[in-house]
TrEMBL record:
Keywords from the named record: Metal-binding, Zinc, Zinc-finger
Domain B box-type: 8-53, 65-102
Annotated gene: LOC111114287
Species whose genome carries this gene: Crassostrea virginica (Eastern oyster)
Name used for this protein in its record: Uncharacterized protein LOC111114287
Zinc-finger among keywords: yes
Amino acid sequence: MNPQHSAQDIVRCDLCETPVPPMCCDVCHINLCIACVGIHLSDRSKEHKVVPFEERGSTINYPKCQEHSSKRCELHCIHCNIPICASCVSSGEHDQHEKLDISKILKTKKELIEKDLLELKNFICPKFQQAASKIPTQKADVEQHSLQLTTALNKQGEALHKEINNLIQKKQSEIEEMNEQHLAAITTHEDAINKALHEIKLVILDLQKLIDSDDVYLVSEYNSRNEEFRSLPAQFQVTLPTFSPPEIKREQLYQQLGSLSQLLFSYPLTDEAARTTEEYGDRKKTPGDVSSLPTRTLSDKPRILTDIPIGYNDLNNVSCLSDEEIWTHGYNNIMKLYNMKGEILKSVQTKSGNDPKDIAVTRSRGLVYADYGDRSINLMKNGPIWATPSSSS
């Protein structure tokens, strides 16, 4: 064969390689020249149907009947979900059952396969490829941000000289650890995308084979997987850590070196998780309720930011008015408003003189407390206390 003309000389007899064979076996799916037709038909181990090459693919390979081995099934019983032959119909076993021509089922399945194949090729696969292409940029951004953190840390460390070198190394380790966590999270996301992309490509190959197949069993057994590929794996949202250097104080070297915020991951609520959450609200709990909700990485090292001395022997309740102001009450009828330095900004006695059962604040900075003694809810804001009696039970 001339390599320069091999593209035009691709159709040959599968037995003797004679070019442009005029016949083919629609059952065995091989091309045959006139001389090889008889040779092929002499193989009686299976059935054959030799047709002109132009009519290839026109023959449906009907399955053999499980009940009547000599018959071919041209119908499908919807009720029993099995192929049936003419003898099955004559037996009366399927008289009251809906029946369909197998060729119609084959056509419907192939239409679904073609639709899924187009969606996988034109939409799902490109979407995953685009997501995969963004991963290197995300990794580069992580490295860049990590470098910025390291630069800021080293600049502050130089001001503290040799006595804080060990602390600098400790903070550096924290950055590197979070950097590894972030890269690991992105790599995990990348692996999920690549795994799905690999599966999508395999499905595409399988669907292409099914499109060309006349095997009723293979085609009829097809179940679409497009739904599981329509959504990308959940993309986390990350809150990047920041480095904030304070004024240097030798007695507080570790704190003065700077606080490094935690690396946080947040994931969008998936459709399935949203449905689970909705059902959970209606008290329809399922075993997957907890795992399906979005999660984020929490710090293993809680930090005490400040200690506020307020002088209570027994503190009963607190409610934050703002980031800098806190309402408190103990086991008495006095409620006190403190700032973060422990200074009393305001002190209020309950209207009835009873101890408040609970306290809260409103969006408009009002103080609300429950009076168990006179069964009332009381609101105070820039003036007198207004009481709302509770209805009796």
